[in-house]
Amino acid sequence: MSDSSELAGSAAVGEGIAHNARVWNYWLGGKDYYQVDRVVGDRVTGMYPSIREVARADRRFLGRAVRYLAGEAGVRQFLDIGTGLPTVHNTHEVAQEIAPQARIVYVDNDPVVLLHARALLTSSLEGATDYVDADARDPERILRAAAGTLDLSRPVGLILLGILNFVPDTEEATAVVRTLLAALPSGSHLVLTHPTLELGGEANAEAMEFWNAHATPPIVARGREDVARFFDGLELLEPGIVSCSRWRAGSGADEEPEVAQFGAVGRKP
Ligand SMILES: C[S@@+](CC[C@H](N)C(=O)[O-])C[C@H]1O[C@@H](n2cnc3c(N)ncnc32)[C@H](O)[C@@H]1O
């Protein structure tokens, strides 16, 4: 059976179209995906073999950034938009290990993430977690819902990992970031990752074209300049906008392969 007929067969048995949250879970080695997600995930891996490494490096970056925020930076609240399916080392687990009183709001618009959201609501007794089923392109609604759990007059770690690439229009993506940051006080941080065709990611172009023909939601890559615009008005923390695998990766950094996914953290002055 050819891969394309396998794709058609999966749709015929009612599994529908591949969804990013489930394919991402497949690449991370999870088990919350359908056959159609595996088939599309494998086709993308065939065109862009380092995609699994990208997914894993992105999660390790999340861990390092949240540990820095909850530790050195003293941030006690997190708004994680485009959360993905629960996996190991979710934001609240990393943050509450350092600060048990940390409060976390997760946001995603995928129906399967919503089904599994209970696993994200296992807060420490001192802290809190909540899940909001909302679209990243509606930041006002997200802020209203988040205010039920977070005190938006105190610093928030705004986590946008692998999500703005699903807002294809750069002006709209920039406006989403602006609106969210405008509602947060000084001392808040933006934590962001974004796929790129730079950093050796040229092969990603073909894989993204295939993705956009066979899966949802459609994705775009961005260059360093566009990613830098998301940080306008923020103090970019060292080492700036780099491959997420190289962001404060410590002494093992040389062994971490550079992946075509920018990662950066900025502080609102
Ligand atoms: C690549 S995954 C990243 C998951 C997680 N942030 C991480 O870095 O491991 C992107 C997530 O964004 C979600 N997503 C995509 N478009 C979205 C939108 N418009 N609003 C909310 N969530 C969205 C997907 O459902 C998926 O769970």
Descriptive keywords:
269 residues; alpha/beta; two-stranded parallel sheet; 10 helices; 10 strands; globular; binds S-adenosylmethionine
Summarize the structure.
By secondary structure, the protein is α/β, with parallel strands linked by helices. 39% of the residues lie in helices and 16% in strands.
H/E element order: HEHHHEHEHEHEHEHEHEEE
Low-confidence stretches: 1-14
Please tell me the overall pLDDT.
92
Please tally the β strands and state the result: 10
Q: What structural class is derived from the secondary structure elements? A: alpha/beta
Bound ligands, each once:
S-adenosylmethionine
> Span between N and C termini?
57 Å
Number of helical segments? 10
Sheet of most strands? 8 strands, mixed
DSSP helix fraction: 25-40%
Work out the strand percent.
Answer: 15-25%
Radius of gyration from CA coordinates: 18 Å
What characteristic shape results from the CA principal axes?
Answer: globular
This entry's quaternary arrangement is: single chain
Note the topology:
Layout: H1 3-15, E1 18-19, H2 20-27, H3 35-47, H4 51-70, E2 77-81, H5 91-98, E3 103-108, H6 111-116, E4 128-133, H7 139-146, E5 157-161, H8 170-182, E6 189-195, H9 204-214, E7 215-216, H10 224-229, E8 235-236, E9 242-243, E10 261-267
Helix pairs in contact: 1-3, 2-3, 3-9, 4-5
This protein binds S-adenosylmethionine (SAM).
The site of S-adenosylmethionine has 21 residues, from α2 and α4.
